[in-house]
Design goal:
It is a single chain. With 841 residues, the chain is of the alpha/beta class. Helices cover 33% and strands 12% of the residues. Helix 1 packs across helix 3.
Length: 841
């Protein structure tokens, strides 16, 4: 503690200037990217990575940047990631340089982990293009590009991603990066980690006006994360197209005050007057580090910065004739290659360090080959500063010292034992078929008790699918020792997650074993906190997971508010270099059955956003019967726990307490049938003409369809009825089962009965006439009007009478339907492999 001495200040300023110059070179030669924002964050970024944890900086190991016990750095202001790329290159080069000089393996970094100067060529480029970038330009064997030999050139995204060395978020869209910070901090409280890791997150004032980011204010305070969360708010009053105060907000509204806003939300607010002064920055980091650990208020530093900051600028000038470009005009890198403004910036760096950049005063490069050579040459010119005044040696030693302090053997509860989500008691076949009482113990308080769990109910009991949600959560928490966390939008009781917690509401001070987080009506904030929780792991082995799974839920109609954070999470999970947890989205009160609440609450169209993910990366479950929930869910959980590609499970349930189905009347009587994704409720009657396949999904639609089974029998309607719980689970079944339930030819001979819409079918590849015969809530392309539940179901044409008439028409038109589809194929001739003409019709 105690501020900076002159040598430390000079070291930080030199590395900061190198970082600024490198990020400007990225923009100059890539001719894209962001400029002013990354420059403004650079002093905070550099100080955080170099001053050490005892002064409030990061505890981390550049050689193992994803070590679970390292502090978490979040470039939540995603567009400002060039400052991170640039700094990571400087740090990586310092270690590589020292390793080559000494051969000492303490300085060795796996090139697949490090960012190196060669990666500057990958800024905003795709991995595919980079594979041949050098060879296409005759440079593959040029010594200038020798670093590419080790592992090629890394593709560097335009916005921050969690694969970027120390960065731990995918930052950028709508504040979703910063919004996960509270969950990340809360995880380490739940995990039993004393004091560290901490989370340092950088974000700007414009981004903090976004909904997701605004909800962080309440989330972090509710979770009582205290000084473990430290947000650095860059306050330069500059956005993309305008200023905030005096632009978006009229300057006459003097009450719009950022400090007051955060103080009024209960945060511990620090301030800083000059975000370009390393002395002030280090003092602010030290002040936060000195904060009382018993003060559970999250911390924020509101720091005055300059968008377009430049280390050598003075009084708004780069040179006596070149004015510094600041505020929102500096947002993009909008200058031509080797423009006068770039040359002015570069000239200040040349003057300070006695170097000269190649070719920058001769106009733009005239060919791709010339661009690449000049780009890498000038990046290396910046890196040559490491050879001056012992800077490179100092930096390498600082990085090794920081890294050596990160130990594998911390006493963290979650780090002990194996992954609890791999327990065989969570497999569908191991689930108790009858209601059971299980003994549970609180490892912190020592208390014990018995808890009742009913994963299945008797036929005829009044219990809708939503009633089973709390039971599967209870069973999950029983098996995993309370590792399944729920955050619902002040609807925990309504959507049936309230009673899933074995030890009640979570509180880090009084009840850390609780798994039900008290949450405000903040769908975006809640899911972001859930993402923060599942993004962490206490496992040193990247192939093992030691953390929590989390669920966030609300009415199906409102779940699109959760989609953007979940989409970004799915991308993060896909690319992660270590195993992470599983996010659960509970699409509660789905379908038109939320009638009494009004049509604003209908979950008809809205839940279908949860289909908008790459195949295989989510498992979507749509339950209509209580006894489908446990086998369907635990089949999905068994897959997700073992397949790192699956990062999200979606559970869709409706409100009505329908009677539990009598499966003795079904063709597939297996109580675990839902674990197969699709199963047969009624098969074709043998020896009679087949009238087609009816695919049912949703609560009222399937319940009312089952009610008319005797009537279909009496009418001689010979259709096969299939319950569609999950296409993803069905896809994983053996081909023999899939072809038995829904053979390929069935796709041209099927109708759908669903509480969803005609826009998104329960299964893919259905035929061209499916829509003409299907029964869905949007059958007339209108919004339903509302009323009591029976009124709405009838209006949706999903009452028993409407379903019978629809299936009757479908069956009666069977021959016409097949003939019409055949007629869609024009007559043609093709030649077989033997050369013979074969007619096609």
């Amino acid at each position: 503690m105690g501020g900076l001495n002159s040598e430390e200040r000079q070291r930080l300023e030199d590395i900061g200037f190198m970082t600024c110059m490198t990020l400007v070179l990225l923009g100059n030669y890539a001719q894209t990217g962001h400029f002013g924002g990354p420059l403004a964050y650079t002093p905070f970024n550099v100080a955080a990575h170099l001053i050490g944890p005892e002064r409030g900086g990061l505890a981390y190991d550049y050689r193992r940047p994803k070590h679970p016990f390292g502090d978490k750095f979040m470039m939540a202001a995603g567009h400002s990631v060039p400052t991170c790329y640039a700094l990571y290159m400087v740090l990586g080069q310092a270690l590589e340089r020292k390793f080559k000089l000494t051969g000492d393996k303490r300085y060795q970094v796996d090139p697949h982990v490090a960012l190196l100067p060669i990666d500057a060529l990958g800024f905003r480029r795709g991995a595919g293009a980079l594979k041949t970038l050098l060879s296409d330009n005759g440079l593959a064997d040029d010594p200038l590009f020798a670093q590419a030999k080790a592992r090629g050139i890394k593709a560097l995204s335009g916005h921050a991603e969690s694969i970027d060395v120390t960065n731990d978020c995918n930052g950028g869209p709508s504040g979703v990066g910063i919004a996960t910070a509270a969950g990340k901090a809360a995880f380490w409280d739940m995990a039993g980690a004393k004091d560290t890791p901490k989370i340092i997150a950088l974000e700007g004032e414009f981004a903090m006006t976004e909904g997701h980011a605004q909800e962080l204010k309440t989330q972090a305070l509710a979770l009582k994360v205290g000084k473990r969360l430290r947000v650095i708010l860059s306050d330069n009053n500059a956005g993309i197209d305008d200023v905030l105060l005096g632009g978006v907000i009229d300057k006459k509204y003097t009450g719009y005050n950022l400090i007051d806003q955060w103080t009024s939300y209960g945060w511990n607010v620090f301030t800083l007057e000059d975000g370009g002064d390393y002395g002030q920055i280090v003092a602010a980091y030290e002040a936060m580090e000195a904060g009382d650990p018993s003060d559970r208020r999250p911390m924020i530093l509101v720091a005055k910065t300059t968008k377009g900051y430049w280390p050598a600028a003075s009084n708004g000038q780069l040179t006596p004739t070149v004015k510094q470009i600041v505020s929102f005009p500096s947002h993009p890198y909008g200058y031509k290659m080797n423009s006068d403004y770039f040359v002015a910036l570069a000239g200040t760096f040349e003057e300070r360090y006695g170097i000269e950049f190649d070719g920058i005063r001769k106009g733009p490069a005239t060919s791709e080959r010339e661009r690449l050579i000049q780009f890498k040459t000038n990046i290396d010119k910046v890196m040559s500063v490491l050879d001056q005044k012992g800077l490179g040696d100092w930096l390498a030693e600082r990085l090794v010292t920081l890294g050596d302090a990160i130990k594998d053997d911390r006493d963290v509860q979650f780090a002990k034992g194996s992954d609890p989500f791999l327990d065989e008691r969570l497999s569908p076949g191991s689930l108790p078929r009858e209601a059971v009482k299980v003994s549970v113990s609180n490892r912190i308080s020592g208390a014990s008790k018995e808890v009742s769990v009913a994963l299945f109910r008797k036929p005829g009991e009044a219990a809708g699918g939503r009633r089973a949600i709390s039971e599967i959560i209870k069973w999950m928490n029983h098996v995993t020792d309370s590792r399944f966390v729920t955050l619902a939008a002040d609807l925990s009781e309504s959507i049936n997650v309230e009673h899933g917690s074995l030890w009640g509401h979570y509180d880090p001070e009084t009840n850390p074993m609780g798994t039900r987080v008290k949450a405000a009506i903040q769908e975006a904030g809640n899911v972001a906190s859930a993402i923060g929780l599942v993004s962490q792991s206490a496992s040193v082995d990247p192939e093992q997971f030691k953390g929590v799974w989390a669920l966030s839920g609300t009415y199906g109609a409102f779940t699109p508010l959760m989609y953007t954070p979940a989409r970004v999470w799915s991308q993060q999970n896909q690319d992660s270099r270590f195993r992470m947890g599983v996010l659960h989205i509970l699409v509660g009160h789905s379908g038109p059955e939320t009638a009494a609440d009004g049509r604003t609450h209908f979950g008809i169209f809205a839940p279908q956003v949860w289909k908008l993910f790459p195949r295989g990366q989510v498992i979507h479950l749509n339950f209509w019967d209580y006894n489908d929930v446990a086998p369907g869910y635990f089949a999905a959980a068994q897959i997700a726990a073992r397949d790192p590609k699956v990062g999200i499970i979606i559970l869709e349930v409706a409100r009505p307490d329908n009677l539990v189905a009598d499966r003795s009347q079904f063709a597939d009587k297996d109580l675990l049938a839902a674990s197969k994704g699709l199963y047969v409720i009624r098969d074709f009657a043998p020896g009679k003409p087949k009238h087609g396949y009816v695919i049912a999904q949703g609560a009222s639609s399937t319940v009312n369809l089952v009610k008319i089974l005797p009537r279909l029998e009496q009418a001689g309607i010979n259709v096969k009825i299939i319950s569609a719980i999950s296409e993803e689970l069905f896809d994983l079944q053996p081909e023999s089962y899939r072809h038995f339930v829904l053979p390929p030819e069935a796709m041209l001979d099927a109708m759908v009965v669903s509480t969803g819409t005609r826009r998104v079918w329960p299964v893919r590849d259905l035929g061209p006439l499916t829509d003409a015969y299907s029964l869905t809530s949007d059958w007339d392309n209108q919004w339903l009007t509302g009323g009591l539940e029976p009124d709405v179901i009838a209006e949706a044409h999903l009452d028993p009478e409407s379903i019978f008439k629809g299936i009757e028409r479908f069956a009666a038109d069977h021959a016409k339907r097949i003939s019409a589809q055949s007629a869609m194929l024009p007559s043609a001739e093709v030649r077989s492999t033997s050369g013979q003409k074969v007619p096609v019709s």
